[in-house]
């Protein structure tokens, strides 16, 4: 089996008015760490709940570890671990009790790994859940999930409450799991984390997969930004095909270039006698904001768009 | 800025949040009282000669005196004896829920922190909660009085009756203000206040039971324990007869003292904590916790313990009464005769007490099973179903705990009655055999109600809590406790599962109704299971 998650054309409606997932495609290969990005309300949590058999798909095809998540939920859940986005636990149980309980219910708790993780995440397992902060509740859920040696980990914004130190521990653990050949679906808003950990990403917007691929794939689809100083005036830049958002000031210009036009633009620049030049590939943040941007522009707000262009 | 700055703003917020809840409580109670008053008015207008003997029944019978205090033969007084305790408990619960909702619960959910960061004093939420609960009780007093006036009762008596019930709510407003400071959780604060309510009932009941009866058997004078209880103070106002006002001062005084106490406590503790510090717990789970049923057991064992203590207490009291019941004569025996025939007065008494216990245990089962809905709505279900636990296994964990808990509670009640009854009557072994059978025969009816709650949770999750309690109240009021005296038609009474419980030990247990109840229970459980498999989980966003 080489595919951990295969979702195609997934539709999920809530009532007759709200379409949460609109023909979503998502493919996670076995052994990869897959980033799942998208603005709030794009349908990330809904997708994960369909993958767990908590919600029933209204259309499309969903396959998880080779099975049907609605029909074979229990059998499949033995082979995966899940960290919910909002960690709701029983306030009068201690963290240690919850870790043991969830591991036992999954059936795959590794006691020595549990000890190690409690240590690494610096969790006090004797406190009651209601006495934990949000970050510490999240640590309970993470230790509970990572204490199980399973094929697939579904992590829904698992680090939104962690401090930078614990974030680093989380990234270490995920790297170890990847080296060990486990599959991970990581929904996140922390782009540096996704960039550091993920082999491929899917960007979801309004219930659809807007883009999917490796970072290199995505970058090839996106403009390169250029900052250049030349001896001769740079005014003609604005007229070259493939150049966008140009800001020219005598012999100094900042602009972005369509991927197919970069070589030709470089040729033109050489004619103007380049003195210094910096080109940078688009960051994940820019990729991501481009999709957010379209989303927000569609709703008629312009503030974020300005910020993006100013970069 | 004083400690009470912002109180009135919080009052407006609380009224906005409670705009459906509180009117539903007050109107529901008033409608219930008006309807039953009209029924008794109608029946005693047709047969005025029965009023005095019926009053004597409840005066002479210590088991009936538990329900209230009788002062002379009046329709209003008789109605208050039948409805008074129910209404007093409901008024107390309405007030406790309201106060806890706006103090401890809003702290537990972190809302208090957001409010406290604004221009809001330390004591504003206590002040607002008490004001809102008092306003609700004021409206309740008016509506209850109006209900009785509309049903044809004298104006003064009706108003005193309404106020006497609302004063129980007033006293428990103060109780809940204090328990909200002591406990650090909503459940704990409500539980403590409920325990105080139980104690208050026991004191009033004991006081009336041990009270003295006048020569005409129409008036009871309570013994001293009744004077230690807000429910007792309410009854001492004796509406429709003496119409005394001064016992109202005791409730008002209690509210003042308790609220001041709550303010004092609030000044000495941190927001989000109770007076009792949070203890640490085990770093590792015991093996007994590591299954769905183990988890459910752990989550509800505190509540079960509270119910067990209450039922054992009532069992001992009612068991000890057996001797007095055995010595009853005249009119007082008629009520029990309807239950089990003249031949076995004691058996009929025990059967009726077992049915009361059965109703109480049914309420426990419903609160437990509704946690299924809360697990789902609050999201604690998500991590469990994310593991290798099927929906059916989760449902079964609750069903098993409900059944075991119910069996435990009815048996504890029976054993307590046997212990106390055996001491006064002798012949403990045969009493044990009779009462254990009578206890177990309650379980099928309780299970039917439980299965109906499961079906509601699975079919109509959003409405399940309200509908389940409507179902409980319906099953109680058309059942054998109230149905016959309300003169309800038999087809209506047949709709309550409790109408089909054999009146053991007065009547021998026949398998027919028991089998039928089990069949209905199985059918409802089947509906619940099917619905559960088909639908989406209603998890929080």
UniProtKB/TrEMBL annotation, chain A:
**PROSITE patterns the UniProt entry points to:** ABC_TRANSPORTER_1, ABC_TRANSPORTER_2
What membrane topology does this protein have?
A: Peripheral membrane protein
Q: Pfam families, per this entry?
A: ABC_tran, DrrA1-3_C
Domain called ABC transporter: residue spans: 5-231
Give the main location: membrane
In the UniProt record, does the keyword Transport occur?
A: yes
Q: Where in the cell is it found?
A: Cell membrane
SUPFAM superfamilies reported for this sequence: P-loop containing nucleoside triphosphate hydrolases (SSF52540)
Could you name the domain of life of the organism this protein comes from? Bacteria
**Keyword list, A-Z:** Antibiotic resistance, ATP-binding, Nucleotide-binding, Transport
Q: Which SMART domains match?
A: AAA
Which terms in the Gene Ontology molecular function aspect does this entry carry?
ATP binding
Q: Which family does it belong to?
A: Belongs to the ABC transporter superfamily.
State what protein this is by name. ATP-binding cassette domain-containing protein
Species name: Nocardioides astragali
UniProtKB/TrEMBL annotation, chain B:
- Recite the UniProt keywords alphabetically: Membrane, Transmembrane, Transmembrane helix
Membrane-crossing residue ranges in chain numbering: 20-40, 84-102, 123-151, 157-178, 190-210, 244-266, 302-321, 348-370, 398-423, 435-460, 467-492, 512-532
Instruction: Report the superkingdom from the record.
Output: Bacteria
Protein name, entry field: ABC transporter permease
Q: Which organism is it from?
A: Nocardioides astragali
């Amino acid at each position: 089996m080489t595919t951990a998650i295969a979702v195609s054309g997934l539709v999920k409606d809530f009532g007759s008015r709200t379409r949460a997932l609109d023909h979503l495609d998502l493919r996670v290969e076995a052994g990869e760490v897959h980033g799942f990005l998208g603005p709030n309300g794009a349908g990330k949590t809904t997708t994960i709940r369909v993958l767990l058999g908590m919600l029933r798909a209204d259309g499309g095809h969903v396959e998880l570890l080779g099975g049907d998540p609605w029909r074979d939920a229990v059998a499949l859940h033995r082979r995966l671990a899940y960290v919910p986005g909002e960690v709701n636990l029983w306030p009068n149980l201690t963290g240690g009790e919850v870790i043991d309980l969830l591991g036992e219910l999954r059936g795959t708790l590794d006691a020595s790994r549990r000890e190690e993780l409690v240590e690494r995440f610096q969790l006090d397992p004797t406190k009651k859940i209601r006495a934990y902060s949000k970050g510490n509740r999240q640590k309970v859920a993470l230790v509970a999930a990572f204490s199980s040696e399973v094929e697939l980990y579904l992590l829904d914004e698992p680090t939104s409450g962690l401090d930078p130190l614990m974030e680093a521990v989380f990234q270490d653990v995920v790297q170890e799991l990847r080296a060990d050949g486990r599959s991970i679906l990581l929904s996140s808003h922390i782009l540096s984390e996704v960039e550091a950990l993920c082999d491929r990403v899917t960007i979801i917007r309004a219930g659809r997969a807007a883009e999917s691929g490796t970072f290199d794939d995505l970058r090839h689809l996106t403009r390169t930004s250029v900052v250049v100083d030349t001896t001769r005036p740079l005014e003609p830049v604005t007229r070259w095909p493939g150049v966008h958002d140009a800001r020219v000031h005598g012999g100094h210009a900042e602009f972005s270039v369509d991927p197919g036009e970069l070589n030709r633009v470089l040729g033109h620049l050489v004619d103007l006698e380049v003195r210094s030049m910096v080109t940078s590939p688009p960051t994940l943040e820019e990729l991501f904001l481009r999709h957010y941007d379209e989303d927000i522009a569609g709703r008629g707000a312009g503030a974020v768009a300005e910020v993006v262009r100013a970069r | 800025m004083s400690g009470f700055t912002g109180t009135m703003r919080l009052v407006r917020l609380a009224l906005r949040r409670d705009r459906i809840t509180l009117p539903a409580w007050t109107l529901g109670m008033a409608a219930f009282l008006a309807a039953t008053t009209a029924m008794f008015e109608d029946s005693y207008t047709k047969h005025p000669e029965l009023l005095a003997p019926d009053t004597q029944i409840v005066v002479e019978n210590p088991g009936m005196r538990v329900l209230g205090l009788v002062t002379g033969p009046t329709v209003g007084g008789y109605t208050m004896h039948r409805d008074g305790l129910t209404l007093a408990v409901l008024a107390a619960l309405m007030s406790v829920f309201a106060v806890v909702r706006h103090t401890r619960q809003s702290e537990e959910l972190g809302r208090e922190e957001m409010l406290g960061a604004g221009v809001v004093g330390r004591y504003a939420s206590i002040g607002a909660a008490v004001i809102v609960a008092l306003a609700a009780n004021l409206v309740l007093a008016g509506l209850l009085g109006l209900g009785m006036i509309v049903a044809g009762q004298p104006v003064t008596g009706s108003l005193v009756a309404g106020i006497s019930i609302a004063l129980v709510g007033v006293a428990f407003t103060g109780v809940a203000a204090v328990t909200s400071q002591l406990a650090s959780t909503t459940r704990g604060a409500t539980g403590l206040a409920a325990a105080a309510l139980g104690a208050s009932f026991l004191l009033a009941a004991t006081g009336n039971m041990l009270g003295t009866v006048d020569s005409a058997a129409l008036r009871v004078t309570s013994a001293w324990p009744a004077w230690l209880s807000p429910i007792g103070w309410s009854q001492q106002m004796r509406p429709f007869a003496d119409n005394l006002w001064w016992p109202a001062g005791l409730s008002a005084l209690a509210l003042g003292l308790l609220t001041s106490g709550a303010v004092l406590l609030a000044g000495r503790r941190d927001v989000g904590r109770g007076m009792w510090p949070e203890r640490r717990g085990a770093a590792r789970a015991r093996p007994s916790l590591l299954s769905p049923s183990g988890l459910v057991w752990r989550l509800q064992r505190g509540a079960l313990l509270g119910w067990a203590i209450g039922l054992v207490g009532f069992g001992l009291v009612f068991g000890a009464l057996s001797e007095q019941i055995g010595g009853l004569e005249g009119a007082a025996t008629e009520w029990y005769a309807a239950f089990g025939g003249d031949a076995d007065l004691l058996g009929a008494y025990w059967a009726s007490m077992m049915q009361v216990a059965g109703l109480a245990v049914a309420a426990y089962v419903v609160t437990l099973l509704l946690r299924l809905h809360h697990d789902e709505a609050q999201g604690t279900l998500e991590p469990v179903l994310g593991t290798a636990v099927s929906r059916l296994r989760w449902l079964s964990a609750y069903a098993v705990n409900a059944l075991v808990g119910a069996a435990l509670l009815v048996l504890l009640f029976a054993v307590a009655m046997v212990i106390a009854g055996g001491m006064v009557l002798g012949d403990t072994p045969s009493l044990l055999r009779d009462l254990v059978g009578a206890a177990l025969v309650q379980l099928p009816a309780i299970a039917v109600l439980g299965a109906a709650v499961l079906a509601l949770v699975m079919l109509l999750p959003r409405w399940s809590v309200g509908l389940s309690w409507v179902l409980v109240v319906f099953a109680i009021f058309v059942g054998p406790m109230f149905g016959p005296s309300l003169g309800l038609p038999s087809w209506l009474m047949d709709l309550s599962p409790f109408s089909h419980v054999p009146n053991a030990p007065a009547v021998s247990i026949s398998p027919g109704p028991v089998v039928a109840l089990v069949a209905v229970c199985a059918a409802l459980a089947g509906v619940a299971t099917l619905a559960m498999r088909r639908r989406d989980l209603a998890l929080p966003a």
